[in-house]
Amino acid sequence: QNAQQAAKAQVKADDRQHVFHSWSAQAKIDPLPVAGGSGSTFWDYDGNQYLDFSSQLVNLNLGHQHPRLVAAIKRQADKLATIQPAFANDVRGELARLLAERAPGELNQVFFTNGGADANEHAVRMARQHTGRRKILAAYRSYHGGTTTAMSLTGEPRRWANDPGDASVVHFFGPYAYRSAFHAASAEEETQRALEHLESVIQLEGPGTVAGIILETVVGTNGVLVPPPGYLQGVREICDRYGLVYIADEVMVGFGRIGEWFAVDAFDVVPDLLTFAKGINSGYVPLGGVLISDAIAATFAERAYPGGLTYSGHPLACAVGVETVRVFEDEAILERVRDLGERVVRPELERWAQSHPSVGEIRGRGLFWAVELVRDPQSREPLVPFNASAEAAAPMNEVAAACKAAGLWPFTHFNRVHVAPPLVISEQDLRRGLAIIDEALTIADSYVAA
Ligand code: PLP
C-alpha cells in the first residue's frame, strides 16, 4: 500500500513538473495517474477501476493488453525491432496486402504514417500532386488532426488558434439533420440540400482550382454524425463530375468502430484515398496510413512522390496491425459490434430519448453513438453552449463526474455524451456502463426548464 502511494506520488510529481500536455493550460490540469489496464477497464493507484467508454481516444478497439497483440510485439521485437522504409519488410508488406484485400474498390497501395494527422497531410499532398490543383474542401464540424494542414482542414475550435495555417482550405456544411444548416424537414431533403450547397461551394471556388474533398465517413468527435442515405454517394458523383479527389478520413471510424472494416462499406461508396490510424492496431504502437487508388498510385509510377517519414511502416507497429486483422477475424469482431450495437445499445439509447427530458437526440451505429443533451427539447437549445467555457460547461462536467464516481470513464464533447467502448467489451460490462450513464443523465434532466 505504501509502495503504491509512493509510486503514485512519483508519477504525479514527474508529470506535473515535466510533462507538457496536449490542448491544455498546463497549470489548470490534474491528470489521473493510471497504474494499469486490462480489456475494457483501467485503474488508478488507489484501486479505482474505470470502465472505458471512450476507448482512450477512440483508438483502443481491442482493449488493453490483448494477449495476442502483446505477443505479436514481442515476437517482432525479437526478430527485427526496426528497419527504415526504403527496404522491403515482411510484416509491412503483409499488412499492406491484408488492408488492400479488405478495402473496397481499387484501393490497393498503402503509404504508412505515424498516426492520423500525418495520414491526412499525405492524402492532401497526393490529391494536390495528382490533380495539379491546390484547394481542399473540408467540413465544418470535423477533426482531422493536429499538424498544420490537418489542423487547417479541421472545422471546429481547435483550429482557431492555429490560423492561418494552410490557406488553401475551404469549409462547407455537411449534413446534420437535428441542427440542419439547410432548414431541411427530412433526411432526403437534408441530403439533397447538403449536396446542392457543396456543389455551389465548388462552383464559387472554381472547380479547376479544387484538388479534393476530405470527409470523415461518420463524423467522430464532432458529434457521431451518420450521413443520411445518398449523401456520400452524391459526394462521390460530384467528385467524379469535377475531377476532384475524394478523401475519406476513417482514422476514428475504420477498423470495426461501426461494424465494418472500412466505414465507407456501410454507405456503398469508394473514395480515392482513405486515411486510417487508431483502430488499425489499437494504438499499441503508433501507426496510420493512406490507402491509395490505382489511378492515384499511377501518378507516382514514373514521378517520385515527394514525401516520407523515418518510421513509415515501422515493423513493430505493422506486426500488431497484422495480428489485429487476424484477431478481428478469429473473434468475429465486426459481427459482434453490429450485434451489440443493434441489440443492446440502440434500444437502450432509444429508451433514454423517451425517459430523459434532456436527451434531444440519439444517433450512431455499431459501437459508436452520441447522446445529444439539451436544455429545452422544443427549441433544441444545447445543454451547454457551443465551445463553452469551463464555467458554462458545468452541467456536462457534472454528468461526467457522476460517471467517473460510479466507475465509468465517459467521452463527452460540448453538449454530448458519446458511447464508444472497446469492441471486445462484454455484454455485461456494456449494460453496466449504459446503466451508469442512464443514472448520470438525471443530472442533465435537472437543468431542463420545467
Ligand atoms: N482524423 C480523425 C477523424 C480523428 O478523430 C483524429 C484523432 O482523433 C485524427 C484524424 C488525428 O489522428 P492522430 O491524433 O493520430 O494524429
Automatic annotation (TrEMBL):
InterPro entries: Aminotrans_3, Aminotrans_3_PPA_site, PyrdxlP-dep_Trfase, PyrdxlP-dep_Trfase_major, PyrdxlP-dep_Trfase_small. Its EC number is 2.6.1.55. It is an enzyme of class 2 (transferase). Signal peptide: none annotated. It holds the Pfam family Aminotran_3. GO terms for molecular function: taurine-2-oxoglutarate transaminase activity. Keywords: Aminotransferase, Pyridoxal phosphate, Transferase. The keyword Secreted does not apply. It comes from the Bacteria. The keyword Transferase applies. Belongs to the class-III pyridoxal-phosphate-dependent aminotransferase family. NCBIfam families: PRK06062.1. This is Taurine--2-oxoglutarate transaminase.
